[in-house]
Structures are given as C-alpha cells and as structure tokens.
Amino acid sequence: MRDMPIAISHNYSLREHNTFGLEAKARQFIDYNSVEELVEILSILRDSGEPILHIGGGSNLLFTRDFEGTILHSCIKFIEEVSHDDQEVVVRVGSGVKWDEFCAEMARRNYYGSENLSYIPGEVGASAIQNIGAYGVEVESIIQQVETIEVLSGEPRVFDKSECEYGYRDSIFKNRLQGKYIVTAVVYRLSTVPVVHLDYGPLQQLRSHEGVPTAQEVRDAVIAIRQSKLPEPDELGSAGSFFKNPVVPVEVFRQIAASYTDVPHYVISEDEIKIPAAWLIDQCGWKGKRHGGAAVYEKQPLILVNKDHATPADIMELATLIEQSVLEKFNIQLSPEVNYI
Ligand code: EPU
Q: pTM for the whole thing?
C-alpha cells in the first residue's frame, strides 16, 4: 500500500497542461505515480460517477471550456531494457515519460527507430494513442505492446501492436475504445544495428555522409528541421499540425492538378492520394493571417498559434474559416488532428 495520500487539486488551471497555453480549469486534477495508484483512483471515481478525462502533455488538445470532472495525468516514469541482442533491443517505458526524453536516451544509446520522431512534444502514453509521425516514420513501426488499465474494471490489459488498429494519426484507442483504457506503459522494439529513414527532403543530405549516420546525427538533423519550421512550444503556443493531411479520391486530385500542375501529393493507393493540408491552406492565402488572438503560423500554415491571449473561440473560429475556404476552393473537407475537449 502507498504511504502518501493521493494528491487531488481542485479548480485547477490547465494552462500548463495544454501547449496552446489556453486558460481553462478542471474541477479536479490528479497526477498519479504508479499503476496501483491509478487503479485505486479509478475505483473511487467509478463509485462517484465522475466524468474522467486522461491527458498526456496536452500537445494535441484544444480546451474549449472548463472540464467539469476529473482530469488524470500519468507520472509513471521509467525506461527499462527488457531484452537486448545483436539486432534488436526491447525497451519498456512508463506512460508519463516525456516523449523526447525517451528519444534522446535511445539516440544516446545509438538505438535506431525513434530518431526521426525526435522533438515531438508530448508523452509516451499519448504516442501510442495518437500514432505520432514525422519525417517518414510513424511510431507504430517501433511499438510492440501497449500496457493499459481498463477504466471500468481497473483490470490490466496488454494490447499487442496488431490489436491497436494503427493508421495515420489513428488507433483503436482514438476510435472504438476511446476513453475505455488508460495507457500505463509502452513496449518499443528498436534496432541495435543502423536502420535509417532519410527519404524526407532535408534529411537526404545525411545520405552523402561517410558511412551510415548515427541515431544521434539523424536526431540532431531532425531537431534542426523542426526548429526551423515549427514554433517552439515555450515561445509560441500551438498544438503542432492543427489538421490532418487529407486523403482524397484520385478524381479530386486530378481536378486540382488540372489547374495546379505543381500540387504536392503522395500516392496512398490506386484510388487515393494524400495532399498536404499546408499546401491547400497556403493556396487560400492564410499564411500569417490573424483572427482575434489566434493566427496561422507564418512558416507553416498547418499550424495555428496563440499569438496574443487567444481564446478557444478565436482558435475554433479560425479553424472553421480555414476549413470553409479550403472546401470552397478545392472541394476538400479538412479534419482537425487536434482533439476538441
Ligand atoms: N507546404 C506549403 N506551404 C508551406 C509549408 C508546406 O505549400 O508553407 C507544402 C509543401 O509542399 C510541403 C508540404 O506542404 O512539401 C508538406 O509540408 P511539411 O513537410 O512541413 O509537412 P506536413 O505534411 O505539413 C506533416 C506532419 C507533421 C510532421 C511533418 C514532417 C501531419 C498532419 N503533419 O506535416 O507533424 O512534422 O509532416 O514529417 O501529418 C504534427 O503532427 O503535429 C506535426 C507537426
């Protein structure tokens, strides 16, 4: 049993828990430190019928109002090697570890697999829910298992990667099982021999490198790209990409390509093409535009920023205006990557 009582904060400001830096409050907020503590908290909350929201680093959230319930946040922090051979290493990581601290540690040990995902804000638990991705890699490629607790029963359940139904920024935890399981740890499988993904434009320069670059060298290059394109969370509030890149039927793409011969695109299948939302938004002239305290980031129009004391309404209205103009001009409906709470 624990010696310390569970620390519950009331009428708690969420400003430090969302990277947009929006002011909203939770009726109760609980940081827990272990699976045992989480199970105990859930049993108490279950009896009171309390609404529950579990958050990670708040890097993908838009608080639209105060939360009239209890917000839970994991402080389960460990990084342990489960096995290690001459090809692979299996590493089990607590859900409350900062994602980039994990990436930094893997690069330091020269394990390959997470380096392209360096510097993404957020925490390990959310990485497995959101299937975070960048520079040609999605986290599902290194996930082996996801350890969870079922909210209703408090029972543990381990999901094999094959059960997680991963897709582009998508998983079973965002769909069918949304809110039903809380991730407590993620088991990753990384490579102890060099395996690099350098297809993304600016990373290609590492190909001319003598020998294969180290995981640390790839990580450093990724961080440099991110710092040049994306706002620093400490300096300018945002939630990274606000919209997903839309996947459209090939006919829709052909209609656009008839007028815009240089439309960037990625072929997903025979029938489907992905078009960068940043390009669509840019073509509609949104770069740098402001709406109240919110704005479209000048260097990457897929990112909405809290320029000057933005309210949730400023951001939501700006997002709607952008959606409307992309729909009008290109007949494509954008959908937010950010979760509205
Ligand atoms: N583009 C423009 N104008 C701009 C910027 C970009 O037209 O001002 C076009 C360019 O054609 C460019 C294309 O958009 O080639 C794609 O831009 P970028 O390479 O910056 O990537 P993205 O598709 O906008 C995605 C992820 C990012 C991830 C990058 C790199 C999504 C929703 N976003 O952005 O993820 O870092 O690729 O892999 O898939 C995030 O999810 O929060 C995030 C930042």
A: 0.93
